[in-house]
TrEMBL record:
Top-level taxonomy: Bacteria, Pseudomonadati, Bacteroidota, Sphingobacteriia, Sphingobacteriales
Subcellular locations according to the entry: Membrane
Protein name as it appears in the record: Signal peptide peptidase SppA
Organism: Olivibacter jilunii
Residues spanning the membrane: 7-34
PANTHER family attached to this UniProt entry: PEPTIDASE S49 DOMAIN-CONTAINING PROTEIN (PTHR33209:SF1), PROTEASE 4 (PTHR33209)
Length: 588
């Protein structure tokens, strides 16, 4: 009896302490939410102001308007982020806002890939058409930060700072050795000489074909980068290559001598220069507003009944509903079907930012795109990545637009079936026995290797999927299936390369894709509407809070190793035949 009361008391104490902890966590969450909500109130913008642009966070395609979005777990701090859609809108609005006299870029760190940077860079160049100034100042510029900073009229650097101008590199991790130590074999079935998603699990370095394609698209990205910086800074491309090869920008004085920057100044000197530009007394304070807080002047509501829909397809392609950061075949198909059946919607832009995923889910979405093209214009705008399954869902559209530095192509398929027999038997001491009613009843079992018959069966399915993929690309692009195969084989291309081989129609920005869709539908006045609707804020927060906390802890403990963990987990958790980018591309 004594033991009984002891256990009961311990249980009650545990419940009581859990309740107390939950109570204080709930209060912290609510406080953070209230803080985030209050920060969303319109900030008053004074006359003669400057717009500050830093963007030192991961830039998503769309701004999450949930009050929970700005709550950072587990610190519960409130931090404001906006998506690419709002960044572009606000820079464009500032161009015609008489209260804004110029932009100050602080490009110390920026969380975006090159196609997203290109969208922002294009918007900054359009802003300059207003004859307003852009000034860049930082304690240090990364390659990505400098790409945006180079648009400025003047680029300044802290006298002790540096420009990390050293070219681009792509490093790929390989897990073959790890799997061998664990007694795990990755059984691979694929189509495509360049379809190298499987290489990290069966090789310890890049295959010659993979190295060829990485070298090709990396140099394409680099050439385009240097070309734009050369034009903005009036420095020959050969000189820029030399600066990178000698790492001249690492030293502030050398960065000045090579004309990467226009001057070495401290913050107080920058403030003095801005006061001169704004025409205010040295004793007065500069009025500024962050782009995250900036709201454009209210304009008259567009009374047009015509709609132009933007359907966002972002993330891995999976079957089912997916999420705001995942392309669920049901959710995205339903969104495309909705805009197709809505008579008010006259044209559609399908915005794709995806490395691909399930080939079956891709095909489900592809069908909705094909049906839509029959009744109204649908144009694809590619973001950072629209490859493999991402290209599959694009190929049926009327036209495909991409940035020169978009990653696309990768027309190929594969499957990985892990064989864990040695791991179970020799590492864990687990053995298996079974009874089955059919020859293939235990096909895809991970506790034994594939038989020759089973491997041949799966290869046939992979070949069939590749044939279907290339046939649909051929029909959509109006070229032969043989030609698709010659530029397919899983090979990755940049947008600039894809335009030359017929996979992309035009190199253009997101806004240019919208303009083209409106022109094709013969629209002069229209309202932009976005699909699919973003998830319910409370449901999304409660559903993801534990994942956010777990991710935060793992990132903190693993640092750069977290990316390797994510890549290994992502590939090993895949089920079914995949139309996916060869690997997690990390260019720095």
């Amino acid at each position: 009896m004594k033991q009984f009361f002891k256990f009961v008391f311990a249980s009650m104490l545990g419940v009581f302490l859990s309740t107390i902890i939950f109570f204080f966590v709930a209060i912290a969450i609510m406080a953070a939410i209230i803080s985030a909500a209050s920060s969303d109130k319109a900030v008053e913008i004074s006359e003669n102001s400057i717009l500050r642009v830093s963007l030192n966070y991961a830039i998503k395609e769309r701004t999450d308007r949930s009050p929970f979005n700005n709550v950072s777990l587990p610190s519960m701090n409130s931090e404001k982020y906006i998506g690419l859609d709002e960044i572009l809108l606000r820079i464009d609005a500032a161009k015609n806002d008489n209260r804004i006299k110029g932009i100050v870029l602080d490009m110390d760190g920026i969380g975006a890939s090159f196609a997203t940077l290109q969208e922002i860079r294009d918007a900054l160049l359009k802003f300059k058409e207003s004859k307003k100034f852009i000034l860049a100042y930082s304690e240090g510029y990364s390659m990505k930060g400098y790409y945006l900073a180079s648009t400025a009229d003047k680029v300044y650097l802290n006298p002790e700072g540096s420009v990390d101008f050293r070219g681009l590199a792509a490093q790929l991790p390989f897990f073959k050795g790890t799997l061998e130590k664990l007694g795990i074999e990755a059984q691979v079935v694929k189509v495509g000489t360049y379809k190298s998603a499987v290489e990290p699990f069966i090789l310890d370095k890049m295959s010659p074909a993979n190295k060829e394609q990485v070298n090709s698209y990396l140099n394409s990205l680099y050439d385009y980068y240097l070309g734009n910086v050369s034009k903005s800074r009036n420095i020959p491309m050969d000189s820029l290559r030399n600066i990178a090869d000698n790492y001249s920008g690492r030293d502030a004085e050398k960065a000045l001598n090579t004309k990467l920057v226009d001057g070495l100044k401290y913050k107080n000197e920058i403030i003095d220069e801005l006061k001169v530009k704004l025409g205010i007394d040295k004793k007065k304070r500069i009025k500024s507003i962050n782009i995250e807080d900036y709201t454009s002047p209210k304009t008259e509501e567009n009374g047009s009944q015509n709609r132009l829909a933007v359907v966002y397809a972002v993330g891995d392609i999976v079957s089912g509903e997916g999420s705001d950061e995942q392309i669920g075949s049901e959710r995205i198909s339903r969104a495309i079907r909705t805009v197709r059946e809505d008579d008010k919607v006259k044209a559609v832009v399908l915005r794709i930012n995806s490395p691909g995923g399930s080939s079956l889910a891709s095909d489900v979405i592809w069908k909705e795109v094909e049906l839509t093209k029959k009744v109204k214009p649908i144009i694809v705008s590619m973001g950072d990545v629209a490859a493999s399954g991402g290209y599959y869902i694009a190929c049926a559209a009327d036209s495909i637009f991409a940035q020169p530095n978009t990653i696309t192509g990768s027309i190929g398929v594969f499957g990985i079936i892990p064989n864990l027999q040695n791991f179970f038997n020799n590492k864990l001491g687990i053995t298996f026995d079974e009874v089955k009613t059919g020859k293939y009843a235990d096909l895809m079992s991970v506790n034994r290797p594939l038989t020759a018959d089973e491997r041949d069966l799966i290869q046939q399915e992979v070949n069939k999927t590749y044939d279907t993929f290339t046939k649909k690309v051929a029909n959509g692009r109006k070229i032969s299936q043989g030609q698709v195969d010659s530029i397919g084989q899983g090979r990755v291309w940049t947008g600039a390369q894809a335009a030359k081989i017929g996979l992309v129609d035009r190199l253009a920005s997101f806004n240019e894709a919208i303009t083209a869709a409106a022109r094709k539908a013969k629209l002069k006045d229209y309202k932009l509407v976005s699909y699919p609707a973003m998830k319910d804020p409370l449901e999304a927060f409660l559903g993801s809070s534990s994942d956010k906390l777990k991710t935060w802890i793992m990132k903190k403990e693993m640092n750069e190793g977290y990316l390797l963990y994510e890549q290994a987990k992502q590939v090993m958790q895949q089920s079914g035949i995949q139309a996916r980018l060869p690997y997690m591309i990390n260019i720095h």
